[in-house]
């Protein structure tokens, strides 16, 4: 999975670090997740081409009777939606071959092509929505509006769907919505407040897809890229009730000092209040914890003591990195909270506040560098600790790297001033590239947030 593995796997600790990362990412890819969580039951091909048993679709612990279903529509979007769709087609093919289903069709908007036979996978642009995204989402909504009560809608909803599924409400433009989001972010509004506004300015977000597909039953198959796995936050909740109310969204836009475009305020002010909540089935097939658990199994099998620090870590990348570095020092010197050999795992989503800086980097790269700098002056620890942090989708910030792997030996005393300057100026990618510390995978086909592995060897 990782490029230039021979360069990175120079010690047992570094090899274990990469093995844990690879296991974590692979555990969350749709081709593994979907067959483990979705299955077709009661459909077996016999000599006459018919079916045996009571045909049903199982998603985790819930089953759906297919005897009342003529057609399955797959409608959704996000970075992993194409791969989820390909896996669904493979699972559902026997139902088509035996005549249990009359049809399988649909459309998803992803950021990479995928080979499918029945469902169209349209490649859109991410992170900035384009006309291609608008056209594909409009076509998706047209298909949803044609659904009947004899259809079952399966909705793959994954990270990246907020940009890939783009359908501004009547009278609003992409530029207006982008300005609104920027203003909300700059004001310090919470993610719930941001989604309360932008979900009500879209034809697909905030339950828009589910409303368009009524009266068909809608079953969401989500892969979470957000801390806490809130259904209304993942891809801005196309199949669930938006957070807050119309009145609260208007109140947010009218806060003192807020410069929300007038068109957005007028749109919200002219809407009718929501009367009912959206009733759909929502299943989360994979989360950050999926990746952490797989990584932990690798560490345990190799004889390491393990600790899951948290799957919900947020905050400034450098601060979280320094916390990991301090933890490594405590383990190596004092045996607390674990006696080495030990592996500490964590997940979540960290951020970088750039200010006036215009350097090149990513939050996972900053985290790894900041954590290792905490160890650079402690010779006994720096040679025994390895810290790696990656974004599981294979892209860390606006770079080709997914993250970085560093140990104290990479930071020779002569390199320490340059490392500190790189971190302070948020220009870490050139420094890490020169050190040979960048990790690259290319797009992984999944996205369950960040994954971090800290390995501390015994004395």
Automatic annotation (TrEMBL):
Residues annotated as domain MOFRL: 343-450
One Pfam family here: DUF4147
Domain of life according to the entry: Archaea
GO CC terms, sorted: cytoplasm
Residue span, MOFRL-associated domain: 18-268
One GO MF term: glycerate kinase activity
Species assigned in the record: Natronosalvus hydrolyticus
Lineage: Archaea, Methanobacteriati, Methanobacteriota, Stenosarchaea group, Halobacteria
Protein name from the UniProt record: DUF4147 domain-containing protein
